[in-house]
Specification:
By secondary structure, this protein is mainly α. The chain is about 70% helix and about 0% strand. It has a domain of about 120 residues. α3 crosses α5 and α5 runs antiparallel to α6.
Length: about 170
């Protein structure tokens, strides 16, 4: 019964996803981000699929929840960036009233982002069977101890490419 209610809520939310992404201007970029994150998320890793005996249906619902999270969280991250720029202006002007206002606004946006991450995780965990949760606890004990999406609460974008130092020639 819980899964059916969750599925209904997810599907209702996803029906609004296309119009929401069109309004935000993310469209193709948003879809690519979602696809890339979905490829790397734990429930789409071959070993975990086999170990946990995840069904295609479960993984599809998890991907849908993740996509909705990314879209909603991306809007928050844009707002965070805008507010940080305004905070910088307030700091430069030493405007304490504006600094306090921006501090509160930014803190609220971070709180929303963390809340969305936890909601996403909770909705995904509700899709798991008791046996799957037990297997996670036994084989992947840290899986529920950390956020699954890095950078979800910060607006900074970090490069995925690491600069390698050139190897020194041994002579």
């Amino acid at each position: 019964m819980i899964v059916n209610v969750i599925t209904f809520v997810i599907l209702a939310s996803l029906s609004n996803l296309q119009s929401a992404s069109a309004q935000t201007g993310f469209d193709e970029k948003e879809k690519n981000i979602i696809k890339n994150v979905q490829k790397r998320i734990w429930w789409n890793a071959k070993k975990k699929i086999e170990t946990l005996k995840l069904t295609e249906s479960q993984r599809k619902e998890m991907d849908d929840i993740l996509g909705l999270f990314i879209t909603k969280n991306r809007k928050i991250k844009v707002n965070q960036s805008e507010e940080k720029a305004l905070l910088a202006n307030a700091l430069m002007a030493s405007n304490m009233a504006a600094i306090i206002e921006k501090r509160n606004t930014i803190a609220n946006l971070f709180q929303q982002s963390v809340g969305r991450q936890i909601d996403m995780m909770a909705n995904i965990v509700l899709l798991l069977t008791p046996e799957q949760k037990l297997t996670i606890n036994q084989n992947y004990p840290n899986l529920f101890k950390n956020f699954w999406i890095r950078g979800a609460i910060d607006s900074r974008v970090k490069s995925k490419k690491r600069i390698k130092k050139p190897k020194k020639n041994k002579q």
